[in-house]
């Protein structure tokens, strides 16, 4: 353990850099609460999405890194802002009219349109917990509604009354003049309609901890700020929650970064210590636009997991979190192959290199071995030339290439074969475009075909690659033009696999037949 800790204290992997920064928070003394608290927030106005996964995953990676360098216990809270008013009706749920009748009520007061839970908030919270449990995250779940209603927020709410002017001063600086006229940090819950009211306060009573306001009809009301009668606006709520829970670490997207000074200052005004932050860049769709759960662009977590493993998604999330990245279907094959490359490299690495390897963070140090005897990108090409409709077609080739491999002994390989067939049929097949060879390419293809017809050596990747290379070197400058021709003429794609490995997998005679079919124009 000491060797691991020593390496972790020097590691440049971003989870360890963040963990060391967090550890400095308690260099002099351990936290009075007895643990370091990590938090992630969730707005349950809709179903969990890929951003939720990324936030909890990355926070967990930092948490595990912290546990290597520190003996202080840790906890992770997933906090659901389910007391928020439902401002609009999601378009992808049933019983739209029922939801319209309950607009602006807290999500936990809105009937469940699926008629499975006590409220829409409870339904979405259940989906969130099932979502997190599916991926094996270790966390404690907190509901804002319960937090407010049971009095766990009361002391901070009282301090918000006492420090009302100070908190308002922070908030008003960030608002347009028109908004300043009606803004209050407190949002009362109407005693009759149950709606969350965005109204100015006529009085904030520091002795009785009450607020007085007029509702939309001009009727005056006075409510205690405690006991769930009033909630905080979302920006003050952020800072107040940090103060109430004594949160030590929370990450969020770049779109929140301009609010960080506001959150921090409100936390301090309310008697808390601002937590450590980590701001990550946002994901982009195929057109370079920010991925939004409301617009549905980009790729969902269900879509990713239709075509690739959870681990490949975790690998993608690990990479350069402070850099904006395109997250679309075409990044999946690369993520799959690079994840397994890192798995294979891990076994031969020293402690320093292992802690820099993404797979250490994906698996919290308990790293499995890769049983992928064929890269995922090669499986896609194999599916393409064979027109595979099921993974058994691919296994026919895999077993010939690696006789000891099987679905039972190579479960990762078996899973990947299924992914490859689905990915090929949904993305590769519709985009395949073959072309006829030029005269020079035809000449080279004929020579390669004749070499393969006469081949009596083993199915050796390197030996076959050497022959492919030699045929091209005689004719093409740059040599890459030869390989581009192979891909475009034989596979109907602009790029492809290392061709010697492809021949070994697909078969020497089968590749010769493939060349003949291409030369005869059968793919055009």
State the name of the first-level CATH class of the domain at 2-150. Answer: Alpha Beta
Q: Unreliable stretches, pLDDT < 50, 5 or more residues?
A: none
Instruction: Report strand order across the widest sheet.
Output: 3-2-1-9-10
Question: What is the residue-averaged pLDDT?
Answer: 94
What is the CA–CA distance across the termini?
61 Å
What helical percentage do the residues reach? 40-55%
Strand content: 5-15%
3D structure, described in words:
There is one protein chain. With 524 residues, the protein is an alpha/beta fold. Among the domains are: 2-150, HUPs (Rossmann fold, 3-Layer(aba) Sandwich), CATH 3.40.50.620; 176-232, SH3 type barrels (Roll), CATH 2.30.30; 376-431; 439-519, Arc Repressor Mutant, subunit A (Orthogonal Bundle), CATH 1.10.10. The protein has helices spanning 2-10, 14-23, 50-69, 96-100, 120-134, 144-149, 154-162, 164-173, 177-180, 234-245, 260-269, 301-307, 310-318, 332-346, 351-356, 358-362, 376-386, 391-401, 411-428, 439-453, 461-473, 480-491, 499-506, 508-519; strands spanning 36-42, 74-80, 140-143, 186-188, 203-205, 210-214, 220-224, 230-232, 249-253, 276-280, 283-284, 325-326. A 5-stranded parallel β-sheet has the order 3-2-1-9-10. A 3-stranded antiparallel β-sheet has the order 5-6-7, with no helix packed on it. α11 (260-269) links the parallel β9 (249-253) and β10. α10 packs across α11 (260-269), α17 (376-386) crosses α19 (411-428) and α21 crosses α23. The protein starts with a helix and ends in a 5-residue tail after the last helix. The model has no long low-confidence stretch (mean pLDDT 94). ATP binds at residue 293. It catalyses: tRNA(Lys) + L-lysine + ATP = L-lysyl-tRNA(Lys) + AMP + diphosphate.
């Amino acid at each position: 353990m000491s060797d691991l800790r020593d390496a972790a204290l020097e590691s440049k992997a971003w989870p360890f850099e963040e963990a060391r920064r967090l550890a400095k928070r308690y260099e002099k003394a351990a936290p009075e609460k007895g643990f370091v608290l990590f938090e992630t927030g969730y707005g349950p106005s809709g179903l969990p999405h890929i951003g939720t996964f990324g936030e909890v995953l990355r926070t967990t990676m930092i948490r595990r890194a912290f546990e290597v360098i520190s003996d202080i216990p840790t906890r992770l809270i997933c906090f659901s802002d389910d007391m928020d008013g439902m401002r609009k009706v999601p378009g992808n749920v049933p019983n739209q009219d029922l939801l319209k009748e309950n607009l602006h009520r807290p999500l936990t007061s809105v009937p469940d349109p699926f008629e499975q839970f006590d409220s829409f908030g409870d339904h979405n919270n259940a989906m969130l917990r099932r979502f997190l449990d599916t991926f094996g995250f270790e966390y404690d779940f907190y509901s804002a509604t319960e937090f407010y209603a049971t009095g766990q927020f009361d002391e901070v709410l009282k301090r918000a009354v006492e420090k009302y002017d100070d908190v308002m001063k922070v908030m008003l600086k960030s608002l347009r003049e028109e908004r300043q006229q009606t803004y209050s940090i407190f949002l009362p819950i109407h005693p009759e309609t149950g709606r969350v009211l965005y109204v100015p306060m006529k009085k904030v009573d520091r002795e009785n901890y009450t607020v007085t306001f007029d509702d939309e009809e001009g009727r005056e009301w006075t409510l205690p700020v405690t006991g769930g009668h009033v909630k905080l606006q979302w920006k003050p709520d952020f800072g107040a929650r940090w103060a109430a829970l004594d949160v030590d670490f929370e990450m969020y997207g770049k779109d929140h970064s301009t609010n960080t000074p506001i959150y921090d200052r409100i936390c301090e005004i309310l008697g808390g210590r601002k937590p450590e932050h980590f701001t990550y860049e946002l994901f982009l769709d195929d057109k370079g636009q920010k991925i939004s759960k409301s617009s549905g662009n980009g790729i969902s977590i269900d879509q990713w997991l239709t075509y690739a493993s959870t681990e490949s998604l975790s690998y993608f999330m690990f990479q350069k979190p402070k850099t904006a990245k395109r997250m679309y279907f075409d990044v999946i094959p690369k993520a799959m192959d690079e994840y397994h490359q890192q798995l294979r490299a891990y076994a031969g690495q020293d402690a320093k290199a292992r802690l820099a390897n993404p797979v250490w963070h994906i698996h919290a140090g308990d790293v499995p071995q890769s049983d992928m005897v064929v890269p995922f990108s090669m499986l896609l090409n194999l599916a393409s030339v064979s027109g595979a409709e099921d993974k058994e077609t691919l296994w026919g080739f895999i077993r010939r290439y690696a006789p000891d491999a099987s679905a039972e002994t190579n479960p990762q390989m078996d899973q990947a074969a299924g992914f490859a067939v689905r990915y090929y049929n949904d993305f590769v097949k519709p985009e395949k475009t073959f072309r006829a060879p030029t005269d020079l390419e035809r000449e080279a293809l004929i020579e390669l075909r004749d070499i393969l017809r006469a081949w009596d050596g083993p199915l050796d990747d390197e030996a076959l690659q050497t022959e492919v290379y030699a045929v091209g070197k005689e004719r093409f400058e740059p040599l890459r033009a030869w390989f581009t021709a192979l891909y475009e003429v034989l596979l109907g794609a602009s790029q492809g696999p290392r061709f010697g490995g492809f021949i070994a997998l697909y078969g020497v005679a089968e590749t010769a037949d493939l060349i003949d079919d291409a030369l005869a124009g059968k793919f055009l």
